[in-house]
Amino acid sequence: MIEKRATPSHDVPRLTVAGDDPKLERGPMIDICHRARARTLRRAAEIALVSSFAVIAFRDVAFAACQTLDPADVQRFTKLATAAAAAPAPSTPAMTTKELADALRKARLPQADLVAATPGTVQVSSFDFLNGGTYLKATLDGPWHTDVVQFVRQGDRLIPIRRGRAGRERVTSDVQLSVRSADSAQRYVQWLLDATSDQALWLVASVDDVPFKQPSRTEADLKAQIATLRQSLESQIEPPRAEESGTVFVVHQDAVVGRDLVRYTIKVSRLGLPTIESTTIAHELPVVYAIVD
Length: 293
What we know:
This protein is an alpha+beta fold. The protein is built from eight helices and twelve strands. A hairpin with a 2-residue loop joins strand 9 and strand 10.
């Protein structure tokens, strides 16, 4: 057992350990270590208790441990705990604007100064149809508006991707493309439409993808119009699909272009040469407005 021995007020209290051996004086360190060990054990118990609740939540048996809570709250807690466990770690950008600006200067491209002077982010994507190349999309937050500049990097080349019909035609002449399957053709068409459209464009697979305006409380007529349009477009919008037809692939893709709903039917060769046909399904939809730089 441990006994505390009285000492003068000016001395540090000393402890004596009694046992079968003669008394051994151990000084104040025993008391300090004892208190530290007690705190460690108490902290470990707290962590174990919290961990046990987390394990219970992750195993979907939170109801058994939280019977006094409202069932809706228990279900919400379980979903949040599971989502937190499954959430991936945030990714870091593969390229900075400074690195892109340096590469553009090396390639003697005029966009270098804009990228170097404007803060923003660079999205780097790899697509199978780019024949080993990567797609670089820089979103630059200027003082008055947002600029978007795009490039394809193939080997030592940086190829600008411009919007509009002329830019779309330059893609097939400047970029080495390889389309080997219907799935690859569908990805290529979606990328091509998005990267070269000179109007606001949203690729859609169902009516839920249409960017309708959000009516205010006083806009009852707009709310009714959108409800009617949703019901009508629900049966008209088709999910994207692609199939092989002879020597080409045929891709069907619906999109909101400006304020119209458009259906594209695009034939794609294995070298990425597109033949584009479009049909307008609906005009002047009450969608959000966006300006494409």
